[in-house]
Amino acid sequence: MPNSVTPTHCPYCALQCGMNLTPQRDGGVTVVERPDFPVNRGALCGKGRTAPAVLASGVRLTSPLVRSGGTLVPATWEEALDRIAEGLARTRTEHGPDACGVFGGGGLTNEKAYSLGKFARVVLGTSQIDYNGRFCMSSAAAAGMKAFGLDRGLPFPLEDIPRTGCVILVGSNLAETMPPSLRFFNELKENGGTLVVIDPRRTKTAEQADLHLAPRPGTDLALALGLLHLVVAEGRVDEEYVAERTAGWEDARAAAMAHWPEYVERITGVPVPQLREAVRLFCEPEHAMVLTARGPEQQSKGTDTVGAWINLCLATGRAGRPLSGYGCLTGQGNGQGGREHGQKADQLPGYRKLDDPAARRHVAEVWGVDPDSLPGPGRSAYELLDALGTDIKSLLLMGSNPVVSAPRAAHIEERIKSLDFLAVCDVVLSETAELADVVLPVTQWAEETGTTTNLEGRVLLRRRAISPPEGIRSDLEVMHELAARLGGERGLEKGFPTDAEEVFEELRRASAGGPADYSGITYRRLAEENGVFWPCPTGAGTTEGAGNTQGAGNTEVTEHPGTPRLFLDRFATPDGRARFAPVTHRPAAEEPDDEYPVLLTTGRVVAQYQSGAQTRRVDELNAAAPGPFVELHPRLAARLGAAEGDPVAVVSRRGRAVAPARITTGIRPDTVFMPFHWPGEGRANTLTNPALDPTSRMPEFKACAVRLEAVKA
Ligand SMILES: Nc1nc2c(c(=O)[nH]1)N[C@H]1C(S)=C(S)[C@@H](COP(=O)(O)OP(=O)(O)OC[C@H]3O[C@@H](n4cnc5c(=O)[nH]c(N)nc54)[C@H](O)[C@@H]3O)O[C@H]1N2
Ligand SMILES: Nc1nc2c(c(=O)[nH]1)N[C@H]1C(S)=C(S)[C@@H](COP(=O)(O)OP(=O)(O)OC[C@H]3O[C@@H](n4cnc5c(=O)[nH]c(N)nc54)[C@H](O)[C@@H]3O)O[C@H]1N2
Ligand code: SF4
Ligand SMILES: [Mo]
């Protein structure tokens, strides 16, 4: 098919930029512009532009590997699949089904995530499945559920941003983490709107802001309460809206009133005049939005923190109205869809709850199993990883690299090494795959079809543009083959089709009637439209399953248009009212003291993605971001006697990491920052604190206490 062009989407972040692929003579593809897709209108960041580099045989896995005499050696697919089935079956026989763990990823397509959740519960019969999305936006998801009765990252399309009056961006560095999205914020400013950025660092994003507040890491909850206090004190509450559309205001109000501005200044380090200015910018225009990302969410109080920001929106009448609202910027390619269809410990497809008897009955019927055979909720991601080698003896890992990305990573690495059996499906030999007993090489984005759901709740079709190299199979094929081997006489593989559209058809039925209803979405529609926003029930809106409408004679079935904007009439709570969260400030799980006097926060740089497993294999990206660093203020550097580029040791109660100093006045003098993309000596997660949020079970990646030491060259 020379010169043919395949429209598809980037393999990396939650923006899911549209791109066109053109196949090359050598079997590869090049990325070309796709201006018709409204989210990025052709623009791509360097990661998306260079994504084809990871398709090359020099950097990717090309054969299954099995451990033999301590090293990983090439093996046939039959041998590798048999070994995995044996490993999991032995664990199940010797220790019971819950000794088999499954760990997934928010980068997996909806079809893979759905199948993985089903595989765990139906084939392995284990409750022990969770995924890396728990490390990502779970606190915002929990807060959104509590407040609105539904969790969808953004309740409106990005194209609404330029037409609102003010956006408060809390702990998002989207100029580096979603560069093409910056356009919407520039247009906002061109239209006379304002941007407030809240980040302990003066990031590329903060440089664009009309107002930048730089709080101490881990204090966003107090900051939001302080702003709400001022909203009340200055008479800016939208009383009519609060009375009509919300519940719980009195308690939330009382909690905010205990956080007077000078007290909040003391906790956060943000001067009172800046608090007042933020309130003015947010309240004066007719419309305004608050968007959060990992800064306020990756805290051991992330759920309460996001709840406090939602309170601010509710008190000022800025949720469930056009051009106003609260949203969370999800992170991974399928960060949204990956959290809806059952790879989460407590969840069934369609964002149903595993402990809800009606949900169990519905999904069990779609799966053709007895509802009582479905296990209950399991452990959250960190707790699951922490149980490896003790309660959990074998692990199947698909789409994550926890040796680099999990908190307290040296401990988690030890836990992984203590497993009886580890199987990893990946496209490259990640640091975690290096520890496996069996590694399976799987197909990548450009080589397979599937759907993802971007940060707006827009379901998209990724299309296969080229054939995978010989010897590579898809994650769906892997699950099919393992189901065949582990199911014995039961013929379980029939429930694990290898064709993505077939899986999607089942997902439609399983999600029908659930909160994240995909039943009205088809591959045909996705191919014709620029995505469809969920919820999108079938025309009839029944829970019967969309497949049944086929062959319905002349009956005309109207298509549901999808739901770009949520909550305009009512919230998804039983009484239709949004709930205030009665939250109060509390400190980070680990505050600085004499021994560990500095705060460490962590995050990202534009040219590397996550654990770096993929992007560290791309020359152009490595040239731009070759390795880890410690960002610190000149005052801190002087005290340490460190010059630009000198190695600095960062020591926490978990361990010690060493990386070159990067000195800048753009960070608070009491805080250091490290990106987490690298393994080895400069691994940021050697230091991080796995203190968990009590509701979301999110670890505190964004704040822990450290001390700095000069390193003799
Ligand atoms: N280049 C690149 N892009 C990515 C990714 C990547 O790895 N690389 N990953 C994708 C994924 S999965 C995600 S989740 C998103 C994440 O996207 P972002 O949330 O934008 O990324 P982070 O860098 O983790 O954190 C954002 C900012 O939070 C600030 N911060 C740190 N501590 C605090 C705090 O206590 N309060 C506040 N308010 N801010 C704080 C940091 O200084 C940082 O600038 O990016 C996606 N896009
Ligand atoms: N200190 C610190 N740590 C953090 C964060 C932070 O801000 N600070 N952020 C956290 C966040 S938000 C996230 S999302 C996590 C992410 O961290 P990880 O979960 O480690 O994410 P990735 O590095 O994207 O790992 C994905 C792995 O799956 C592989 N892969 C990609 N596509 C597929 C596929 O289709 N199938 C299969 N089988 N494999 C595939 C990739 O090659 C890679 O090895 O890190 C968390 N860790
Ligand atoms: S912004 Fe995200 S989706 Fe867009 S090209 Fe970059 S990594 Fe890909
Ligand atoms: Mo993430």
From TrEMBL:
InterPro entries: Asp_de-COase-like_dom_sf, MoPterin_dinucl-bd_dom, Mopterin_OxRdtase, Mopterin_OxRdtase_4Fe-4S_dom, Prok_molybdopt-oxidoreductase. Pfam families: Molybdop_Fe4S4 (PF04879), Molybdopterin (PF00384), Molydop_binding (PF01568). The keyword 4Fe-4S applies. Transmembrane segments: none annotated. Residues 3-59 form the 4Fe-4S Mo/W bis-MGD-type domain. It comes from the Bacteria. Keywords: 4Fe-4S, Iron, Iron-sulfur, Metal-binding. SUPFAM superfamilies: ADC-like, Formate dehydrogenase/DMSO reductase, domains 1-3. This is Molybdopterin oxidoreductase family protein. The lineage of its organism: Bacteria, Bacillati, Actinomycetota, Actinomycetes, Kitasatosporales.
